[in-house]
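quick one before i forget lol
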Amino acid sequence: MDPYYPPPALPPRRNFSPLITLLLIGIAALLVWRFFFNHGTPAIDPRPIAPRGDLAADEQATIDLFKEASPSVVFITTAARVDFWTRNAQEIPQGTGSGFIWDDAGHIVTNFHVVLPVVQANASATVTLSDHSTYRADLVGVSPDNDLAVIRIRAPKEKLPPLRVGTSNDLQVGQKVFAIGDPFGLDQTLTTGIVSALGRTIRSVTDRPIEDVIQTDAAINPGNSGGPLLDSWRRLIGVNTAIYSPSGAYAGIGFAIPVDTVQRVVPQIIRTGRVASMTIGVILNDRIGPRITRQLGVEGVLILDILPNSPAASAGLRRTERTRDGIVPGDIIQKIDNKTVKSAAEFETTLQRYHPGDTITLTIRRGNQTMQIPVKVQAATE
């Protein structure tokens, strides 16, 4: 019989504490992660910066335009002074808009509707310049029919760089334009676009037509009103005044009063506080006249009456007469120079382009005859 050897005794079993177990699992997981996921990954440092290179020529031109023109653009706020039956009156904000420096005497051009609270109520206007300094403004005068106004601040001349002034009669659809203003109170905002159309007509606050308006797709929003529209030569070509938008915000259609109108209106406001109304001494009516011209089957503006000793009387124009047999129509004005007029409002608006002493040629219909008659223009106050 083989001898019996008992099996060797097993080493005593070791019990690891839970803390040591968790530590070992963590070390193992870290080693696995470094091996499979972070093996060979360099330290994360900032990316190298690529050189910018030169700006495109049109970019640099736009930058230079803004640098030159923006110091001439201002932010306008209006506030009404209200006394709530206390010893301390308060100023309640009424509205905001834009404007631009016309000369170093401190004259600021803006829209009439921007300063309307100042005209209608006990309100004040404050102008903020591009360096964020503020000045109280005095109202110089307004032209509601042209939606233009002039205010004035007392500021050092070195803070009052006027904009360069261009022309609007030689604009072309498609040329670049730039608008600077304060849309929604965001001052010194630049937007760019093109001339979308020319010769548009919009209505002023007084419901009179403003003609030869510039249409642009440069973004114009509430607060841009009164700010300048510039061409690529950094010249003023219009005053941003209105937008066409169902929502009241930018929809790609903005309008600007042409600078040729601004050039005619603003010097008169600065000189006299108002714009002289041009006249030839005829009385027209958009209620009665159109009914008679429709019956006659002709287009134009019927002269109802003529003022005595007026240019129209001296030129031999004829008024409408009432006889026993009925109404005898007077002359029907169809054109002023080469401009066709179809309503009394169009006639008055067109006439305002002229100056006292200018001679215009009226194309009129008298009975079955068409004739041209020269007439001198004078100011309504003369």
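fyi The chain is about 20% helix and 35% strand.
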